[in-house]
Amino acid sequence: MTSEVARHLLFQSHMPTKTTCPSSQVSDDEQKQKRENIRSLTMSGHVGFESLPDQLVNRSIQQGFCFNILCVGETGIGKSTLIDTLFNTNFEDHESSHFYPHVRLKAQTYELHESNVQLKLTIVNTVGFGDQINKEESYQPVVDYIDAQFEAYLQEELKIKRSLFNYHDSRIHVCLYFISPTGHSLKTLDLLTMKTLDSKVNIIPVIAKADAISKAELQKFKIKLMSELVSNGVQIYQFPADDETIAKINASMNGHLPFAVVGSMDEVKVGNKMVKARQYPWGVVQVENENHCDFVKLREMLICTNMEDLREQTHTRHYELYRRCKLEEMGFTDVGPENKPLSLQETYEAKRHEFYGERQRKEEEMKQMFVQRVKEKEAILKEAERELQAKFEHLKRVHQEERMKLEEKRRLLEEEIIAFSKKKATSEIYQNQSYMASGSNLKKDKDRKKISNAQVLEGGSKRASESMRAGSLLYGAQLEGESRRARESLRAGSLSYRAHPLPQH
Amino acid sequence: MDPLRQSASPCSSRPSSPKTPPCEMLGYVGIEAVLDQLKIKAMKMGFEFNIMVVGQSGLGKSTMLNTLFKSKVWKCTLPGLAMPTPQTLQLKSVTHVIEEKGVKLKLTVTDTPGFGDQINNDKCWNPILGYINEQYERYLQEEILITRQRHIPDTRVHCCVYFVPPTGHCLRPLDIEFLQRLCRTVNVVPVIARADSLTLEEREAFRRRIQHNLRTHCIEVYPQKCFDEDINDRILNSKIRDRIPFAVVGADRQHLVNGRCVLGRKTKWGIIEVENMAHCEFPLLRDLLIRSHLQDLKDITHNVHYENYRVCRLNESHVLPHGPCWVNLAPTPPGPSVAPGPSKACTQAREDSDDN
């Protein structure tokens, strides 16, 4: 053991000399620290790290903030108007139609500035929710969208070369669920949707268009809704009550859920001010009046007090749950079969080997199949070639025979012609002799007849021989053509066969 | 390793995403309250900071730590007392919790007694690199668990203060070797130790020479030029870069000067006040480390150094045979370039265990 190389790592706790614990430490904190061998120190002067929170805040300001809201509710229930009112601007949006066959989600991102805070706000709207006749598939697109955002983040986190600080976080931080103000109870669709979403996202239910309910009915409605949610086990977002500064206000707000809200961007003159309100013949509903609706409470809770907590819950609870489920689904575990801790990498490696093995096997299979097919095809083509060759030979033979026959015939014909011309010559001689003797017409007639016969014969024989020649030529051409075609097809077959080369073994 | 290091700047001011039209708000909404929410959350959770001091013995490392945090972070080792100079390089860590105006800071300091003290100092940086990489490894293992903790304890070294002995000449070969290796893994802040043995002119000359040495050997100390975000950062950081390495003096005794109680060193020819800018540059170091750049140090460690380590680690793991438990071992290729530490230290440990 070389002395230079060995190294020690000690976690030491010093002898208690002059260190005293500051009185503000709680006793169980002390215990915990003692267990971890951490001592607390008092400082004899000002060090200056109280600026740490400011440094953190400055960095966050530089990076900018990101907040994503999902609005789920029926068409026309006032989602866009409420968002406009909440953030006090007019986001570009037009009314959606009621006739969509499926539920779609539409996401839009806006950049808001307030003093030195940059907020990247993404609003996701459900378009066509609750409009269909058959609403069984209504909530699935919403769940899919939320999962897709988690998946995107998980993919980024699992990459080897990743850039998480640069990543535009699109995970949904809060879901505003709009309940329509019937005054009776939750609709089945609402209940189902909230039950599916409560483990994936922070849900804040709101009663929309609250100016349609009177105050007494509203109270009963709220109680009914909350009891239904509780009895069905739906976990809506509870405002955190662990920090003293905001615990009281959060706890009281928890009692006001679900918030009954009214949204409006129109301004109406009330008294001597212009306020956001909705004007009816029987009165004016002021949006920011706490007696009229809970809008101010919603804005307070959502933005001013708990925005950071919503983001944190999304990241530490919902995202971690999704991640755990997803990784377990893929087959990773933390503890192996003998209860020894397994590392993610080992499992991943095992899976990778498996996958490669699988792939190799499939490749081999495909190769085998290909080779086999090629062999078969080759055999077939060879057969065809042989057949064609045989046919060609056969045709050639037939052709030869025909030709010989024709030659025979021709020879016979020519012999006949020669014999005939001989006869003709001798008959002419006779004719001259007999003409010289008597000069009779009979002979002339006979001769003329003979001559015409001879001519007819000659013409006939000529025609016959010509036709025979033509016929033999034609037939020969036919045969030639056929054999050429056969040869060509054979060549083409063998070329195409050669164009797909056999794999090298 | 270098192309990896230029990967990305730590805190980008605008996360990239397409088509985000800016919107005018017609009135006050209350978005800026999120800053207060952040502060409350941070105060509740507390902060963590891990600092490492490296240098030969007798350069005043422990005293410097005590001066920085104005408390007995470390018991100063006086020469001649019970503990002999260690024969090997050991790393010792101590964790403290200090609180100031409601802000809790969990401070971990790591000392390296025995660094550069032997006759043959070859490869004396390996244990240090091993320790740093082990902390990265620990964090990585926590991060890739299926069921993760809510808040992963951060033991990664955020800053390494390197003490240069005040020779007055230039950087020694040991310094250069060490700095070259360490700058790629951790934020390094070099300081001139015991600067009261140098006059002001000698300090300036020494500083220039050190800066020249650093440039020649391409050593990028903190604050690194490539991570400057915008023009303000650059201006601020160039001022700091101009004064690096700071000439510091440490002291933990208080003396009376002009009726005030100050920390200082008393000598026959005067009292050297530690917090006096005319005497030494300790306030600059303290401001850099604590008051202005602490969060930045942590960010660069997390976003750059840790990510680089992670990339190397995940890339090489798939050629490994499976090692025991959570530490995957790899035989690193021999060479002067920095290889991920735990592998080397652990293979040597394995060899040692085989020997024994």
Keyphrases for this structure?
heterodimer, A: 505 residues, alpha/beta, Rossmann fold, 2 domains, six-stranded mixed sheet, three-stranded antiparallel sheet, 11 helices, elongated, B: 356 residues, 10 strands, disordered N terminus, disordered C terminus
Q: Numbering strands along the chain, what is their spatial order in the largest sheet of chain A? A: 4-5-3-6-7-8
Helix coverage percent of residues of chain A?
40-55%
Total beta strand runs of chain A: 11
CATH superfamily of chain B: P-loop containing nucleotide triphosphate hydrolases
Question: Could you give the distance between the termini of chain B?
Answer: 35 Å
How many β-strands of chain B, per DSSP? 10
Q: In the residues of chain B, how many domains can be counted?
A: 1
Unreliable segments of 5+ consecutive residues of chain A: 1-28
CATH class of the largest domain in chain A: Alpha Beta
- For this entry, what is the oligomeric state of its chains? heterodimer
Q: What characterizes the major β-sheet of chain A? A: 6 strands, mixed
Q: In whole angstroms, how far apart are the ends of chain A?
A: 55 Å
Helix content of chain B: 25-40%
Subcellular location (chain A): Cell projection; Cytoplasm, Cytoskeleton
Family (chain A): Belongs to the TRAFAC class TrmE-Era-EngA-EngB-Septin-like GTPase superfamily. Septin GTPase family.
Main location (chain A): other
Protein name (chain A): Septin-10 isoform X2
